[in-house]
Amino acid sequence: TAPAVALPATALPPSFRWGVATSAYQIEGAALEDGRTPSIWDTFCRVPGAVVGADNGDVACDHYHRMPQDVALIKSLGVDSYRFSVSWPRVQPGGRGPANPAGLAFYDRLVDELLANGIDPFVTLYHWDLPQELEDAGGWPVRDTAYRFADYAMLVFDKLQDRVDTFTTLNEPWCSAWLGYQVGVHAPGRRNFDDALHAVHHLLLGHGLATQRMQAAQSRPHTYGITLNMGTADPASDTDTDREAARRADGMGLRIYLDPLRYGRYPADVVADLAARGSAFPVHDGDLEVISAPFDLLGVNFYFGQDFAGTDPDGNTHDEQGDPVVRPILPDVARTAMDWPITPERFTRLLVRLHRDYPGLPLVVTENGAAFDDKPDASGYVADDDRTAYLAAHIAAVADARREGADIRGYFAWSLLDNFEWAEGYAKRFGIVHVDYQSQRRTPKQSALWYRDTITRTRG
Ligand code: GBH
């Protein structure tokens, strides 16, 4: 990897928001404490072969018990914001009914601790931990789950709105829908195309219902948003077949979320593609008005961009089911420990494109980061040149996109801590702070020190 370049101090304005991000199931542990019930991830982790090393989030980073020290750690990194998610089954066990006071109290204490340390809390309401009871009732493919989500959101909002400014609804609905219900590599591990498609619609509906209800109940103005995972989908070559594959990938990966959210309609080309295979979004009258409820901020999670080919390696344009081939091809560049290509110039292109195609929507990078094969020394310190270079290149990409006019307000590094990396278990480390899972000792890596220095210099 190329060595990290120091970002010019003026590359980003003093008002730029700098943060670190985590999610509840990935760090909290305390899976059975204070009334929390299982989520789909507690269940999925027990499925043989589902998670590398048969790991689970029972203990994770034990953040639930170490929260004040972790907030002190966040402060020591020099960031001004902390993005965390609220665990639905902690706050509303079973996914229905009244709030669990002990569960809500944890987030109440977290917010107070952050504010006392001058850190702005940036709340994600849902980062993939659906209460298992709601999955047993059908999960996201079922319409009722959208209404259950809005009810849950209000329990959190009522408790925290006096002190929290930013509420985002969903983290990466693409992952919840397709990885959870079609590919089956994430919880709940189901494999059905139409279930996933219905999940997309109900996730978006849940976002809209929750956003409308929070806005109606607010006692002061807040910033409302949603976070999407976004890549770039380029044709692998100039052929019509590859261009068509890239169009389909972009439609299913990005436009089926942003078009309804911003313009109140699913993209016509995707609707036609779906109809050709006998599928359709389960839209009821009025749903698209709800889904397109105005919001203030788009969270962008970016890891890499890819190319798409419309043929398989044997040259076939259709698979065994008769569906057109949309084959991802990873750009031929350096990779991370996830085997993900490192593509910062595509990040700039994505951000500029969002500004062009969905104007008037402020952007915040809610996740960006990388796993590498860390080699801690005896003290736990990791000299992670590779991660440092990754962050430097992607923050420079944000600055480039701003110079091209994109309205990007902030950047959150994924992640504060090494943590439970979903289907990869604890084997993959994304933290800018090393975690020794035996002792739970936290040690900032070189990348964290670089990040702190970068923030300090850009603040002027
Ligand atoms: C994020 O997901 C999560 O929000 C976060 O919890 C997680 O720890 C972090 O990233 C690191 O993984 O190759 O078909 O999957 C990112 C998941 C990975 C989804 C890249 C899109 C590209 C398309 N994204 N993936 S595919």
From TrEMBL:
PROSITE patterns found in the cross-reference section: GLYCOSYL_HYDROL_F1_1 (PS00572), GLYCOSYL_HYDROL_F1_2 (PS00653)
Alphabetical list of InterPro entries matching this protein: GH (IPR017853), GH_1_N_CS (IPR033132), Glyco_hydro_1 (IPR001360), Glyco_hydro_1_AS (IPR018120), Glyco_hydro_1_beta-glucosidase (IPR017736)
Keyword match Hydrolase: yes
Binding-site positions, substrate: 26, 127, 171, 303, 414, 421-422
Keywords for this protein: Carbohydrate metabolism, Cellulose degradation, Glycosidase, Hydrolase, Polysaccharide degradation
EC number: 3.2.1.21
UniProt GO cellular component terms: cytosol
Any Pfam family the entry gives: Glyco_hydro_1
Segment forming the signal sequence: none
Active site: residue positions: 172, 367
Catalytic activity: Hydrolysis of terminal, non-reducing beta-D-glucosyl residues with release of beta-D-glucose
One BP term from GO: cellulose catabolic process
GO MF, one annotated term: beta-glucosidase activity
Entries under PANTHER family matching the protein: GLYCOSYL HYDROLASE, LP05116P
Family: Belongs to the glycosyl hydrolase 1 family.
NCBIfam families per UniProt: BGL
Protein name: Beta-glucosidase
Organism whose genome encodes this protein: Paractinoplanes rishiriensis
Gene name, Swiss-Prot/TrEMBL: bglB
